[in-house]
Amino acid sequence: MERKFPRNLQLVLSGIIVILAGLFYGLHPSYVMPLTFKFEVEALALKNIFRAIMGIYLGLGIYWLMGAFRQELWKSATLCNVLFMGGIASGRLISLLWDGFGLPFFVAMVLELIFMVWGFYNLKAFKSYVGK
Question: In sequence order, which residues have a C-beta less than 8 Å from that of residue 92 and are 6 or more positions away?
Answer without folding.
Answer: 105, 106, 108, 109, 112
